[in-house]
Amino acid sequence: MRIVTSRSPIIRNLAVSTATVLLALSLAGCASKAPRHTGSIPSMNKPLDSMNAAELRNASERFGQAYERDPKNAATGMKYAEMLRMSGRDDQALAVMQQVAIHNPTDRTVLAAYGKALAGAGELQKALETIRRAQTPDRPSWQLLSAEGAVLDQLGDSNSARASYRKALEIEPEEPSILSNLGMSYLINGDPRSAETYLRKAANRPNADSRVRQNLALVVGLQGRFQEAENIARAELSADQAQANVEYLRAMLAQQNSWAKLQNGEENNTN
């Protein structure tokens, strides 16, 4: 099997070209660990990351209606914005979070989610300022530190990003979302082996979700281990969601024909 090194242009170019998508996945849920329940919110039968397109659309409609009834409800607004981002409606997600932040100006979880929405809409510097403004030195939030790191990675300051992730890990050791962000930071900078180390550690945590495993699958696939990557992408999911993850994996690796190039290299080295 051919292992792609950190100097491979395939790794570097693919990592850079998909950085925004990958970090959006890494950021997902970073501000949802401690939602504020200011009223009743719709129930969900399954986690967002395991929903198919139709289920996500139906959930978005229900949460949208709940948001219209009570736009001050932080928990409803944050969940609705997350659904909008997952549906690719970043501008609308940002508009929702702007309103939620206006009504909850001192809520650090809300401000972290607002920063995430800003980053998703491409307003990276404003996102960084919002997240840092929400932080308090005497009681630092690991969610905010992790979100700050993800934005810094998108701004190209990976050294500062990793410092933020490590500070977050000091507060919440072994938290899979932080480990996943740290792993993706290494991938973006062309070091898939270090990325795999952190992502495997994240994926092995009992509270890791499918987005962490999807990132791990991508890193494994970029190193030429395609069957292993697909097995990871299919793990612990319904058939439809597993297939969607595999299609996502192939789409990421197909950029610049990287899947074909790596697979040909693998075949040539096994003959």
Layout of SSEs?
Layout: H1 9-17, H2 19-27, H3 53-69, H4 74-86, H5 90-103, H6 108-120, H7 124-134, H8 142-154, H9 158-171, H10 176-188, H11 192-203, H12 210-222, H13 226-234, H14 239-254, H15 258-270
Helix pairs in contact: 2-8, 2-10, 3-4, 4-5, 4-6, 5-6, 6-7, 6-8, 7-8, 8-9, 8-10, 9-10, 10-11, 10-12, 11-12, 12-13, 12-14, 13-14
Kindly list the characteristics that best describe this protein.
TPR repeat, 70% helix, TPR-like_helical_dom_sf, UCP035836, single chain, 271 residues, Serine Threonine Protein Phosphatase 5, Tetratricopeptide repeat, repeat
Note down, in words, how this protein is organized.
By secondary structure, this protein is mainly alpha-helical. The protein has one domain: Serine Threonine Protein Phosphatase 5, Tetratricopeptide repeat (Alpha Horseshoe). Helix content is 70%, strand content 0%. It has 15 helices and no strands. It has helices at residues 9-17, 19-27, 53-69, 74-86, 90-103, 108-120, 124-134, 142-154, 158-171, 176-188, 192-203, 210-222, 226-234, 239-254, 258-270. Helix 6 (108-120) packs antiparallel against helix 7 and helix 8 runs antiparallel to helix 9 (158-171). The radius of gyration is 19 Å and the shape is globular. Mean pLDDT is 79; it is low at 1-38.
